[in-house]
Amino acid sequence: MSRRTPGDEGMILVNVLMFVAIASGIVLLLISREEIALDRAIRSREAARALAIVRGGETSALVALRRDARDAPDADYASEPWGAIADSDVPIEGGRFDLAIADAEGRFNVNAVRKDDLSAQLLFAKIGRAAGFDDNQLAVAVGLIREYGPISDLRPLRYSGVPSELADRLERLATALPGSTTINLNAASPELMTVLFDDPVVAERLVATRTRQGFLSLQDLADEGVTMPPGASLRSNTFWVRTRATVGGTAQQGATLIQRRAGEEGPVVVPVARWRNAAVPPEAPAFVAPRKPAA
């Protein structure tokens, strides 16, 4: 019969402690995995709910724009009821909600130069020169749009070697949209209004009138002694809606380009392109900062 030495008892204790440590590590690992799985499930549920709310915001824009096409087809401007659906930092159950909506036809649609429309090409040349393009750069831009268009944004022009500062200026005056569009004077920037009317004084007066009453009319143009510029109008059929929903610790956002078309039974309003989260393009309207409460 062998006798146990003091060293043997120490080794047994070490082994026991080692097994306890291993078992504890396994238990902690299982708990950690369970927590990760639970957290993933919660975030997945939050993301699904947030995405549903984002789609709901898009639907509200479709309904508002369809109603506007039926009730007020002659002009479009941001102070109409469709513009009133925009909201910022709205509390919802478990989170917050934002919606931005904007007229997409406040700039020149560069895809118009793909057609054999001399007036569109002349207008693009006029806008391009206002942005600082020379004749060679304009020719390159037109060639690129005709070869690879219709384009969905102006980034291809940047990649073609157009200087960044010129591309920035052009993006303030032009955009890329599907289909045929005009420039809505109710959404055009003061800078573009000056280009369209070739008269900064007239443009300034028209912008002031638009700011004061919320829109422009044909009578307002007549009062200034001018006519509607080629390629311009007072209405739009293309709009942006951008929505963001935060539920718990999960946020989802989407941007949708919406177009109105004539249907057999009245106006049809449909999404023509969608983007989510990081893919939202820079043309989408920014969310309005929430108002600070009065002191």
* Main sheet: strands, sense, barrel: 5 strands, antiparallel
Average predicted confidence as pLDDT = 86
Order of helices and strands: HEEEHHHHEEHHHEEEE
How would you sum up the global shape? globular
Number of strands: 9
Looking at how many chains there are and whether they match, the oligomeric state comes to single chain
The radius of gyration over CA amounts to 29 Å
Structural class label: alpha/beta
Low-confidence stretches: none
Helix content: 40-55%
The N- to C-terminal Cα distance equals: 90 Å
Total helices: the number is 8
Strand order of the largest sheet: 1-2-7-8-9
Q: How much of the residues is beta strand, in percent?
A: 15-25%
Organism: Sphingomonas molluscorum
Domain T2SS protein K second SAM-like: 183-222
Transmembrane segments: 12-31
Protein name: Type II secretion system protein GspK
Would you give an account of this structure?
The protein has 295 residues and is an alpha/beta fold. Helices cover 46% and strands 20% of the residues. The chain has eight helices and nine strands. The strands form three sheets. The protein has a five-stranded antiparallel β-sheet with strand order 1-2-7-8-9, with helices on one face. A hairpin with a 2-residue loop joins strand 7 and strand 8. Helix 6 packs across helix 7. The chain is globular and about 100 Å long. The mean pLDDT is 86.
